[in-house]
Design goal:
The protein has eight helices and 19 strands. The radius of gyration is 22 Å and the shape is globular. The protein is of the alpha+beta class and 387 residues long. The chain has a seven-stranded antiparallel β-sheet, sandwiched between helices. The relative contact order is 0.18.
Length: 387
C-alpha cells in the first residue's frame, strides 16, 4: 500500500473512531434471499459464470520458484497444475492426460521432470507437449501436436499466482486488481514464504463463510474472548475496485498514532488490512504474517476451505520462531476461524433448512456483505459486468 494511502486510511479510521461509526457503505438496509445459500440452481449458475469467467488465486509464488516445482489445485471441480518449466516460464494445465483423462500429477511428487500418466504411461514435457506414448503402433497417424496438455492462462503478480479456469482466456491482472494490486506489491507479498496450509470441508455455503470476514458487527459478541480485545471500539474503513474490497480495521491501539509523526505512520502498526479478492479469496495482512483463505463450493451447503499462513523468515528465526508461528496459526486457524467464525456459519446453514428466514437482513455496517453479493448477482445476471 502506498504510504500516502496508509496515512489517509489511518486519518479516516481516527475520524471514524471519534464518530463511533464505520465508514458509510450502502447507507441502506439490504435483504438477501436465503435461497442464495441453499439453491443448487444458484450454485450451478455460479459455477458457469463466477467460477468460469474470472481469474482465481492458485497460491503463493514461493511454491513455483524452481524448475519442476508446482502448485496443484485444491478443488476437484477445477483440477489444474501450475509448474515452472525448463526455460523458467510459468505454465498451467488441466490435470488430465489427453489419452483417457487420468490425473498426471498426484501431489506426492517433490519435483516434476516430466508429466507421466500413471494409467498408460504417456509422457509430456513441462511445456505441455506430448513427448512419447507407450505402444505407439496402437495409435497410427497420431498427431502429437494436437495431443498436448490443455493449457490455461497463468500469471504471477505481486507474489501471487493467478490462473484462469477457461482455456484460451486472457488475464489483465493489473486492470483487474487496480490499486489493490499495488497494495499487495508494496506490502512485499513476494518476499514471504509458506509456513503451513490446511484444507477442511465446512458444512456451509461458500458465500456464508467468506462473508463472515466482511463485517465487524459480530466481533464483540462472537469473538468476545479472543480478538475482540484487539479490536476494542474498532471501526472499519473500506475501498472498492470493481468486485474487490479492501477493509482496514482499527485496532485498540490506534489512538497511539496521534502521538507519532504522521510521515512515520505504518498502517499495520495500528490496523489490520483485509482484501476480498473476487471471486473466492480472502487475504489478511497481519503485522508479521499473512493469511490466504480460499473457498471452493462442492454443494450449496458444502465448501472446501483452505488457509495458508505465510511469513517473513527473518521475523521468526530458529526453533523459537517456528514455535511462535505454530501458536499463532493454531489460534487463528483453529480457534478464531474454525470454532468461532465458521462454526456459526455452519449453524446458520442448518437453520436455513427450516424456513426461519426468507431473507438475511443486513444493517448499515454490514453493507460490504451486500456489495459482495451484488458483484455475484451482476455476474449471474449479465455475464461479466463485475469486471
Amino acid at each position: 500500500m502506498k504510504h500516502d494511502t496508509q496515512i489517509e486510511t489511518l486519518k479516516t479510521l481516527l475520524q471514524l473512531r471519534e464518530q463511533r461509526r464505520d465508514q458509510e457503505m450502502l447507507d441502506k438496509v439490504v435483504q438477501i434471499p436465503v435461497r442464495n445459500y441453499t439453491d443448487s440452481a444458484v450454485l450451478e449458475r455460479e459455477m458457469a459464470t463466477v467460477f468460469h469467467d474470472y481469474p482465481m488465486i492458485a497460491g503463493h509464488a514461493s511454491h513455483v520458484r524452481e524448475t519442476g516445482s508446482y502448485l496443484l489445485s485444491d478443488w476437484n471441480r477445477f483440477p489444474y497444475v501450475v509448474v515452472r518449466d525448463k526455460e523458467g516460464t510459468l505454465r498451467a494445465f488441466l490435470n488430465a492426460c489427453r489419452h483417457r483423462g487420468a490425473w498426471i500429477v498426484s501431489g506426492k511428487e517433490d519435483r516434476i521432470k516430466a508429466f507421466v500418466c500413471p494409467f498408460h504411461g504417456w509422457v509430456y514435457d513441462l511445456d505441455g507437449s506430448l513427448r512419447a506414448i507407450t505402444k505407439p503402433y496402437m495409435f497410427p497417424d497420431l498427431d502429437y501436436c494436437k495431443f498436448g496438455l490443455v493449457e490455461l492462462t497463468v500469471v504471477e503478480h505481486s507474489g501471487l499466482i493467478w490462473i484462469h479456469p477457461t482455456p484460451g482466456a486472457t488475464i489483465d491482472i493489473a486492470s483487474y486488481l487496480g490499486p489493490i494490486g499495488d497494495d499487495l506489491e508494496r506490502f512485499g507479498i513476494d518476499k514471504v514464504i509458506r509456513f503451513r496450509k490446511t484444507s477442511v470441508i465446512k458444512k456451509a455455503n461458500w458465500k456464508l463463510l467468506l462473508k463472515t470476514y466482511l463485517e465487524g458487527y459480530h466481533v464483540p459478541f462472537l469473538h468476545r474472548d479472543t480478538i475482540s480485545k484487539v479490536f476494542k471500539k474498532g471501526v472499519i474503513a473500506h475501498f472498492e475496485h470493481g468486485p474487490h474490497i479492501r477493509l482496514a480495521a482499527a485496532r485498540a491501539n490506534i489512538l497511539d498514532a496521534l502521538q507519532a509523526d504522521r510521515q512515520a505512520w505504518r498502517i499495520l502498526d495500528y490496523a489490520s488490512v483485509y482484501y476480498s479478492l473476487f471471486p473466492n479469496t480472502f487475504f489478511i495482512m497481519h503485522p508479521d504474517y499473512v493469511s490466504i483463505n480460499a473457498f471452493y463450493p462442492e454443494a450449496p451447503d458444502r465448501t472446501i476451505w483452505t488457509h495458508e499462513m505465510l511469513y517473513r523468515e527473518p521475523d521468526f528465526p530458529g526453533e523459537k520462531g517456528q514455535a511462535a508461528l505454530a501458536k499463532r496459526f493454531e489460534y487463528t486457524n483453529d480457534v478464531v476461524f474454525d470454532t468461532e467464525d465458521f462454526a456459526v456459519a455452519e449453524d446458520v446453514q442448518v437453520g436455513l433448512r427450516y424456513g426461519g428466514n426468507e431473507f438475511h437482513t443486513l444493517g448499515l455496517e454490514e453493507g460490504l456483505l451486500a456489495l459482495f453479493q451484488q458483484s455475484i448477482d451482476q455476474v449471474l445476471a449479465s455475464g461479466r459486468t463485475a469486471m
